[in-house]
């Protein structure tokens, strides 16, 4: 089981930026697609962005042009650079690892997440 540790969440004003990090355990990072999800209060967890082992990226429409996912295989870490944050981006952000970028229902284990709060 891969262990996931998200960090970087904070309170930020609308229009601000944050960079989230997700450190993973083990020696298998290089074979996993990595995905960021988020869950706002009372809502379903949703896919935000994903990156495959060869660097192909996928973004939800609501973050395209604002968020960038990247990975550092040497550090077993995936990042989410979030720019031009909006109040509707307020959520707990989670990362996960799998053989492909897919929806949250396909992951059995989750980390603690990191909370992002965007004030108006």
Tell me what you see in this structure:
Strand 4 and strand 5 form a beta hairpin. The chain has no helices and 10 strands. The protein is globular. With 120 residues, the chain is mostly beta strands. It starts with a strand and ends with a strand. The model has no long low-confidence stretch (mean pLDDT 94). The strands form 2 sheets. The protein has a 6-stranded mixed beta sheet, with no helix packed on it. The chain has a 4-stranded antiparallel beta sheet with strand order 1-3-8-7, with no helix packed on it.
Sheet with most strands: strand arrangement: 2-10-9-4-5-6
Mean pLDDT: 94
- In terms of DSSP E residues, the strand content is over 45%
Structural class: mainly beta
- Separation, N- and C-terminal Cα atoms: 39 Å
Q: Give the helix level as a range of percent.
A: under 10%
Q: Using DSSP, what is the number of strands?
A: 10
List unreliable stretches of 5+ residues.
none
Order of helices and strands: EEEEEEEEEE
- Characterize the biggest β-sheet: 6 strands, mixed
Number of helical regions: 0
Radius of gyration: 13 Å
**Coarse shape:** globular
Question: How would the blueprint of this fold be written?
Answer:
Elements (H helix, E strand, L loop, with lengths): L3 E4 L3 E3 L4 E7 L8 E7 L6 E6 L5 E3 L7 E6 L4 E6 L8 E8 L15 E6 L1
Parallel strand pairs: 2-10
Antiparallel strand pairs: 1-3, 3-8, 4-5, 4-9, 5-6, 7-8, 9-10
Question: Which labels suit this protein?
Answer:
single chain, 120 residues, mainly beta, 6-stranded mixed sheet, 4-stranded antiparallel sheet, 10 strands, 47% strand, globular
């Amino acid at each position: 089981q891969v262990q996931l540790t998200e960090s970087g969440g904070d309170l930020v004003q609308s229009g601000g930026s944050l960079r989230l990090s997700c450190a993973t355990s083990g020696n298998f990072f290089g074979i996993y697609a990595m995905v960021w999800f988020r869950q706002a209060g009372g809502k379903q967890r949703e896919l935000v962005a994903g990156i495959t082992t060869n660097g192909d990226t996928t973004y939800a429409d609501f973050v395209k042009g604002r968020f960038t996912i990247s990975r550092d295989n040497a550090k077993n870490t995936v990042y989410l650079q979030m720019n031009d944050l909006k109040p509707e981006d307020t959520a707990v952000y989670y990362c996960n690892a799998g053989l492909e970028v897919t929806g949250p229902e396909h992951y059995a284990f989750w980390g603690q997440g990191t909370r992002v709060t965007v004030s108006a």
